[in-house]
Amino acid sequence: MPQNVEFSLPWSLRINPHLDEARAHNLKWLARFGLLSPGEEAAAALLKWQPAELAAYFFPDADLDGLNLACDLNGWYGAFDDQFDGPLGRDPRKVADACAALIAEMHQPSENPAPIVAGFADIWRRWTDGMSAQWCARAAYNWSEYFAVFLTESQLRMGLWIAGGDDAYMRQRRRAISAGPLNDLAERVGGFEVASIAWYSLTLAEMREIAADVVTLANDTVSAEREEAIGEHANLLLTLERRDGLTRDGAIAEMQRRTSVLVARFLALEDQARTLSESLLAEQRYGVARYVTALQDWMRGNDHWSRTSSRYVLTQVVPVGADAAMTTTTTCPFSLPPGPSPSPEELWQLEQDPSLLERYGAIYGDLFTVQRPGRPPRVFLGSPHRIRNILLRRDQELVGMGTSIYRDLIGPRSMLKLAGAEHRRLRRIVMPRFAGPALARRGDDIHRIIADGLRGLRGQPPQPLATMTIGITARVMTSPLMFSQLADDVRQGIETAILGVFDALHEGRSAEEDLRHQFDTQYGSHRADLDRLLLDEIARARRAGEGQDDSLLAALLSAPESYSDDFIRDQIVSVLAGGITTAANGMSMALYWLYRRPDVAARVAAELAALPEDAGAMEVASLPYLSAVCLEALRVPTVTPTGDARRVDTPFTEDGYHFPEGTEVIVAIQLAHHDEGNFSDHNEFRPERFLDGVPDGMHYMPFGIGTHYCVGAQLAELEMKLTLAEALRLPDFKLLGADVELNPRSHGVNLTTPHSIQAFCGDSHDTADR
């Protein structure tokens, strides 16, 4: 369907924070001028096509009065433009009379005007308020061009085509979409005027034309089905099909190609505009910069709105007002929540830098949709209310997808990709191996592995802290927790293979294009080694009848469902992927803070010193301040900024929005962890905030939430606590590079310490940060 077509635009979608107030004002304004019928049905019909949202996207920086004017304009446009979809639009004489009356209204107000004219008169009065005479003259000219174009539009509706082909049609559409008045309005509501010497320049003139053409290409694409149904001929996509013999997909591709060419040219002109500004006064330069931004907001806002509004869906006519008509859809009144449509570069940044999540949250609130070209939309939930209503109410229905970076690695049968009863059965088998009594029995073994890992640094050159910690967690995850009787050479082979897979995946994501093939090859080689070793071990254990101990492999082999070797392999790799990386990255963050904050380290050391000499692993893990340090280290920065994506298989409606099949829902853990209402001074590392207890699972969720809560959460916390304890007990354990502010780097789905922070065990005279 053309309304689902996306155009790749490189600018961020922004939205005005005064939207709700302006929407309410707009309904009253339309009713006051007779442009909206009484009753809730007419108001609901108007809201479906989102005229207020359109204004908020176009003018994100306007104050409330400015946004009210923009909303009233869009509501008025709807009433005015839709009159021409009926018989009036095919009578050039009547069209000419109607538009002439509106042009005259700017120069000589009439008595007892019709609702359409009265509404425009009010808009024009507010439009010119406070603006210079020169600007008002330009605005009157642009409005006159807009009204005059409807005479040609009426001819187009009768099947005529403009001589001059596509170029002439685009010139016509620039006027028909009210490009001139909308660009003027950006100055009016933005509180600036573009100096005439700049406004009439060839550079800004071409940029205006390009912006209008980008808007036209998007509008003609998404409105094609609607206009085809009502017999509308003035649509470029339909013309490409009819005139050039293109298929619907071919015509859409051509519209996208033309848009890409225009956007590339616009970006080049941005540099010219900056050069132009160098010869202007400071105030004039400011006007040019604001104007260019306004053109970007127009293109970007229209692209998003045209795909989410019901304006271009097949419609029926609903009477609105005494002398006006509006068409509006009678289909689903809901859409996905508003949100950005980031460029590919911003999508990449979103995965690398969680601060972008905070930026989106500041603009759109605790619920927003990230549109992704060629991929399903992704809805982010950032508050307990949204998590409860949207995710937890449908926890058993939403299908797990795993993490995109590990989706191939974990295999098609992974429990991370399951939902419902099958998912619950697997969790009941897997989770007890890494929690409660089973974990307590293995606690001292895990403690020894961690202590050996830290002491193994002695005599070695410094190595990245994150490399050290992932080596330790890999060793823990190949211990009897997972495999009961794993031979040393097999264990070492599995560790080498899984760490090699991680390196190839993580480094390959940020590698230059010409190096990615090399990382793909490395991934394939290590993945093959991992699969061979695991499948051989599964087959050996099955032949040996191993299934009586408390290892994960034994539990899967003895399950009543008689799982295949490949199925067991997928579950083991899923646990390895999550158990190695998240715990390791949490360890790295906690160790950084321990060495960054000597006061914190001293308090933990005092707790440890108060323990008996023979205290076991679980006694160490029960220390309250040590526990608080680990909890805070998972929050600042949030080691796992987002939860795993969950897919909507059965469409539903919640909180006023409709979630269609295929939509991905994801918890924005970063937003919850940095909510000032729950974590005062949220950017500060302050373990004391956890001494009175841990917030509920919808405010603090370092290991996810719901049925996909991490099965190894207790193990990860235990590993972190024991690592901090052993690091403090080793007098020669040190960190290099921990004396600067933390600049975390992306590591798969987590954040971790940069390579510049390194760990080593050296003599006391070695240079270190502590």
Can you walk through the features of this model?
Belongs to the cytochrome P450 family. Its cofactor is heme. GO terms for molecular function: heme binding; iron ion binding; monooxygenase activity; oxidoreductase activity, acting on paired donors, with incorporation or reduction of molecular oxygen; terpene synthase activity. This protein has 770 residues and is α+β, with helices and mostly antiparallel strands. The chain folds into two domains: 16-316, Orthogonal Bundle (Farnesyl Diphosphate Synthase), CATH 1.10.600; 407-489 and 579-761, Orthogonal Bundle (Cytochrome p450). Helices cover 58% and strands 7% of the residues. The chain has 31 helices and 14 strands. Strands 3-4-10-7-5 form a five-stranded mixed beta sheet. A hairpin with a 2-residue loop joins β3 and β4. The radius of gyration is 31 Å and the shape is elongated. Residues 157-161, 314-334 and 764-770 have low confidence and may be disordered.
Features:
770 residues, Farnesyl Diphosphate Synthase, Cytochrome p450, 31 helices, 14 strands, disordered C terminus
How is the largest sheet built, in terms of strand order? 3-4-10-7-5
Parts with pLDDT < 50 across at least 5 consecutive residues: 157-161, 314-334, 764-770
Largest sheet: 5 strands, mixed
The structural class is: alpha+beta
What is the beta-strand fraction? 5-15%
For this structure, the CATH topology of the largest domain is: Farnesyl Diphosphate Synthase
- Average pLDDT works out at 86
Number of contiguous helices: 31
- Per CATH, the superfamily of the largest domain is Farnesyl Diphosphate Synthase
Q: Per the principal axes of the C-alpha atoms, what is the gross shape?
A: elongated
